[in-house]
User: Which sequence fits this backbone?
């Protein structure tokens, strides 16, 4: 029998090196925040995975999503907005085994605990900063005890978020007074009418120390944002806080404080979840994680207008604007 030639031996040794890496297909929006998270993910796992990045436009339809998956045949998906998430859930319902079993990680989408309830293919990281993180981090920097927090929410969308927030804050001796803005109905017009009738009265209650603003396009819309929300925050001394950084911007003069997602660190957190799937963990077991890292911003002009004194010793990780 002839001995293998040196060329054959070399080819045999090279086989593991030539094996193709697992493919990750990213579906996302094209804005700066999504680009920042995608860049961070590439830095974390780009050498280990074959990454394909696809930007969905506002007008993108399911067929575009479907065709991209069928042509790329990825091993898993990364879904970076609610549109991509809804398309992935639809794709998992197609009849072939590949579609039924294609796994994914979701992030930068809203209300993920509700969206993924009962889902076995997709694990996720919440994009909303938890009320516990937002409110206790605010309390840490101010020289005033926070006992009662007011929030308006929509029961059809945020019931689980509110329930978790109330339980977590109760452990800190903070009461979350949650007002369902859908008392008159679920349409944007009915929600707006309820807020117009009730917001100022609830904010002016003597025991309210803080107003938590939930990110919600039905409650905060073009018809009421400036005239109702921003106006209410400027007409009284109760500070407003939010998980959206731009709400605390100097030019907006809306929220006194924000704790918003740190997109660089979110990319690292997403990468860890992707590696967990590669290592064989099931999406259902990984479930939905809370976002771990936030960027804190204090608008000092709003703080001063709200008669809030800060503890400067606790401000080392807070971006201060509007001095």
Assistant:
């Amino acid at each position: 029998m002839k001995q293998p030639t040196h060329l054959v031996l070399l080819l045999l040794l090279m086989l593991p090196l030539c094996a193709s890496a697992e493919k990750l297909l990213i579906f996302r929006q094209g804005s700066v925040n999504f680009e920042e998270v995608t860049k961070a993910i590439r830095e974390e796992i780009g050498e280990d995975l074959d990454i394909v990045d696809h930007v969905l436009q506002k007008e993108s339809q399911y067929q575009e999503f479907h065709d991209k998956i069928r042509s790329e045949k990825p091993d898993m998906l990364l879904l970076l907005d609610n549109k991509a998430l809804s398309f992935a859930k639809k794709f998992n319902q197609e009849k072939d085994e590949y579609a039924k079993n294609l796994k994914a990680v979701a992030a930068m989408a809203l209300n993920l605990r509700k969206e993924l309830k009962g889902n076995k293919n997709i694990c996720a990281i919440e994009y909303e900063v938890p009320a516990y993180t937002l409110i206790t981090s605010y309390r840490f920097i101010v020289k005033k005890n926070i006992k009662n927090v007011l929030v308006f929410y929509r029961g059809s969308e945020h019931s689980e978020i509110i329930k978790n927030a109330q339980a977590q804050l109760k452990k800190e001796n903070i009461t979350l007074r949650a007002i369902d803005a859908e008392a008159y109905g679920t349409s944007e017009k009915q929600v707006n009418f309820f807020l117009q009738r009730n917001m100022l009265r609830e904010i002016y209650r003597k025991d309210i120390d803080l107003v938590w603003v939930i990110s919600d396009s039905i409650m905060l819309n073009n018809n009421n944002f400036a005239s109702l929300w921003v106006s209410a925050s400027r007409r009284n001394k109760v500070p407003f806080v939010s998980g959206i950084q731009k709400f605390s911007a100097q030019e907006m003069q809306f929220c006194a404080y924000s704790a918003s997602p740190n997109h660089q660190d979110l990319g690292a957190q997403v990468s860890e979840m992707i590696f967990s799937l590669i290592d064989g963990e099931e999406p259902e077991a990984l479930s939905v994680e809370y976002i771990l890292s936030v960027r804190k911003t204090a608008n000092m002009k709003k703080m001063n207008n709200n008669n809030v004194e800060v503890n400067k010793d606790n401000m080392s990780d807070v971006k201060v604007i509007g001095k």
In short: Residues 155-170 form the longest helix (16 residues). The chain is about 40% helix and 20% strand.
